[in-house]
Amino acid sequence: MNISISDKVFNGTVLFILAVIALLMLFPFYYVFVVSFTSPIEYLQKSMVLFPDTWTLTSYKYLLANNVFINATGISTFLAVVGTALSLIVTSAGAYTLSRKRLQGRRIILILILMTTLFNPGIIPPYLVVRELGLINSIWALIIPVLTSGWYVILMKGFFESIPDELEEAAKIDGASDIGIFLRIILPLSLPSLAAFGLFYAVAYWNTFFSAILYINRADIRPLQVVLQMLLIDSSSSSSGDMANMMSSEVQIPTDTLKMAAIVISTVPILLVYPFLQKHFAKGVMVGSIKG
């Protein structure tokens, strides 16, 4: 197909503009990455570092040797691993149960679950529930209230309904129980859906912030995002100053390089997990979205 000169100019102009926009959007990520590896002396000497003369791991070594940061990383890792596992168990079990048409009261339960996705109770009711359960200043306060999602249950239910009923009937003829069918047949066939929703849960738990602000007052169980927020807040704030002093009291390292290194460390785990699960997203989510 022949393309006129005006079309070529237009396409070239559009591509150039898009390339410039992409570079502008990628620059903050590049700057964070570069500053995190910049020597403290070089960072203090230059007004802006675009490419460091000396690459160093000073900020990373200090953060990874700091008890405050290491403890927060461990808390976030616990939330991401244990919370994701428990959420997948509860969500998949509930979705499989609701996908069985022989379940009595199935329609009413689905309506009640759907209502949780339409109406938000706000902040006070969940806080009162957590307080009455005695979970204030407990790490389980960051897991139990968000153990499952009504929307994820509905989507996963649609995925289970796409599995042929003949497989379940054949398993029952062989003497398999409902739990055996769920564990040995349904779950192995649902790995794409589990992988997709598992990553969604893992990202949510890893980024736990607001609920930690509400329910956690103890410094020893603060997740990583709360500690990171205390680093990123404006240096004029007293809370930021306390955190900065706590993080850099022993070593003269610029607070900005510590901030950038903390950002990189907090984002790398999810970036490493995502490529391994990306291929399951389309199949795991789309199938559940087009079924009842």
From TrEMBL:
It comes from the Bacteria. Keywords: Cell membrane, Membrane, Transmembrane, Transmembrane helix, Transport. It is a multi-pass membrane protein. The keyword Membrane applies. It is found in: Cell membrane. PROSITE patterns: ABC_TM1 (PS50928). Residues 73-276 form the ABC transmembrane type-1 domain. The chain crosses the membrane at residues 12-33, 68-96, 108-127, 139-160, 181-206, 257-277. Belongs to the binding-protein-dependent transport system permease family. This is Carbohydrate ABC transporter permease. It comes from Paenibacillus agricola.
